[in-house]
Amino acid sequence: MGEARAYMIGADEISAWVATLLRRAQVIAPRTLHGLDAAYDEIERPDQVAWGYRTTISPLKRQLFPQTDPLFCWHQRAGYGLDLRPIYDQQERVFLAIRPCDLSAVLFLDKVFSRDRCDTYYLARRQHSTLVALACTEPDEHCFCVCAHAGPFLEGGYDVQLTPLQGEYLVEIGTDKGWELVRLAEELFSPAPAKAMQARRELAQQAEQRFSDDKAYFAAALRKVTFDRVPDELWGQMGDRCLSCGACAFVCPTCTCFTTADFDGAGDGVRCRLWDSCLYESYALEASGHNPRAQRKHRLKARFLHKLGYQFVQKLGSHGCVGCGRCVTACLGRNDMTEVTARIRRGAL
Amino acid sequence: MENLYLPDLAEVISIRDETPDTKTFALRFCDPRRWESFDYRPGQFVEVSVFGVGEAPFCLASPRDGAESFDITVRNAGAVTRALHALDRGEQVGVRGPLGNGFPFDQVKGRDILFVGGGIGLPPLRPLIWTMLAHRHQFSSITVLYGARTPADLVYKDELEAWRARPDMEFMVTVDVPDGNWKDRVGVVGSLFQGVSIQPSNAVAFVCGPPIMIRFVVKDLLDLGLAEDSIITTLERHMRCGVGKCNHCLIGDKYVCIDGPVFTYRQMKTMMDPG
């Protein structure tokens, strides 16, 4: 092995590779839960990886930006006042068999947390992470990554990308970090033949054609949201359908609104950051009682400006949606990205 | 790399009652070296923690001078402010900052300066007023207009008297609802504009107060002939993180915490905010 950036590994050998990874790091991979849902979670054994999964119920952000994330603790030293200590998570992790949309979302979070000033909590976890993508050959019912340029295959951004090819996996290496993982068990891999690369290109094309036609219309929605040309009446109608439940934000791989809370006990305590949602009524409420976003239509408008407005594309490099389709499943009011962009495009509910 | 969310410890070194529900706290860093890097401008703010309760943003209410301490003026309105009001001298709080952009200073030298404050809107203006008075010769005229609901709601009462007595500035105060002892003007702060002698084309106004007051005062100032970018205000939003990450203070695409909190009226006008 050496110069090549693409290899093959058999389905049996891949378990041996996973066993090797498990000896070196925590491995987070899709696992089948009760029922048939899959979730990204820690595995202890190679046979726990649900290689055939379509999508997970919650995104990968949970692992890099946890729902409850301790920032620092304090304790009272008798006679010496308070002592403050930051709490960093520097666990070495391999994220294995991650869907391209979720991996694209991590690249977006990298921008969010390193723009202007760096968030050391996110970056500490990120620096100790290696991302192994699993390309999608079969989109799920609600997927629209192809509209968001976030899948179904990745052309970059991954450390390693796996593509299932007739009982084997094509292994593309994107970074030195990815190469390190392969090098741990070099004997399991063989250089990929040219026909494997050709087969991968064909699979990617076929996968793109499997998406149905009526997905997300980003271009028109981006333009109208950016220039505030969505009728106020439409925001009102969509606001009426919003339950302010925050489900869309919690399942969204790119949503990062947070708040903080102190947990205190007898002089010692910890400050955590917690996921928040810009659709909650109290989100912008000030101590004075003034609430600049008291109405649901205003909160919905702010949310979609943040997701789609070119103002934010400029700051973050892309719009805030990777087309994973989770909000389609989660939103009881059908204010998901595909519906909202379609309504914005036609200017009516 | 710098930890954005870890506060530095500071001690409450004095507490002054301003109004029945407002106190001014002077804070000093427990580590004296922290003061050297705490180089702030009027208009910036800090996030102050009461450990176990939480954190809230407060404007820096005193000029950075030799005192090696700084003031925050706090109205008892929510969980963190209630906990601050319960503190005694010598107790510790957490401080992150300075945060935000601050008021323009060098850019407005030579001009007629007009301050318009409403109620608890005076604290953000106070460090700028004192800094400009300390460099009095660099400005043309300095006028401070201050309004509050009742005489009891006026903050910095000693300093108001000092400003009134100074020959090198003009100071006027008004209340909406007078009490038996009130001898001064009655009415909204906008009613004070009639007595102001400024040259609108050369004037710059710093306005801070409740949203309704800002709306009316901005209209008055535009009617007087001030340019849109000569009307400067500082906005209050629910600034949770103060460093542009948590998104709570977004107005359209602007983060009040890092793009502001100081904005010109021209900027405010283009900010896409529904509320």
Describe, in plain words, how this protein is organized in 3D.
The complex is a heterodimer of chains A (about 350) and B (about 280). By secondary structure, chain A is an alpha+beta fold. Chain A folds into 2 domains: about 5-65 and about 90-210, no CATH class; about 220-260 and about 280-345, no CATH class. In chain A, about 35% of the residues lie in helices and about 20% in strands. Chain A contains 14 helices and 12 strands. Chain A has helices at about 10-25, 60-65, 100-115, 120-125, 145-150, 175-185, 195-210, 220-225, 230-240, 245-250, 295-310, 310-315, 325-330, 335-345; strands at about 5-10, 25-30, 40-45, 70-75, 80-85, 95-100, 130-135, 160-165, 170-175, 190, 260-265, 270-275. In chain A, strand 2 and strand 3 (about 40-45) form a beta hairpin. In chain A, helix 9 (about 230-240) crosses helix 11 and helix 11 (about 295-310) packs across helix 12. The longest helix of chain A is centred in the middle third of the chain and has 16 residues, at about 195-210. Chain B has about 280 residues and is of the alpha/beta class. Chain B folds into 2 domains: about 10-100, Translation factors (Elongation Factor Tu (Ef-tu), domain 3, Beta Barrel), CATH 2.40.30; about 105-235, Rossmann fold, CATH 3.40.50. Helix content of chain B is about 20%, strand content about 30%. Chain B is built from 6 helices and 15 strands. Chain B has helices spanning about 35, 80-85, 120-135, 155-165, 210-225, 265-270, and strands at about 10-20, 20-30, 45-50, 55-60, 70-75, 90-100, 110-120, 140-150, 170-175, 185, 205-210, 230-235, 250, 255, 260-265. In chain B, strands 10-9-8-7-11-12-15 form a 7-stranded mixed beta sheet, with helices on both faces. In chain B, helix 4 links the parallel strand 8 (about 140-150) and strand 9 (about 170-175). The longest helix of chain B is centred in the last third of the chain and has 14 residues, at about 210-225. The termini of chain B are far apart. At the A-B interface, strand 4, strand 5, helix 4, strand 11 and strand 12 of A face strand 4 and strand 13 of B.
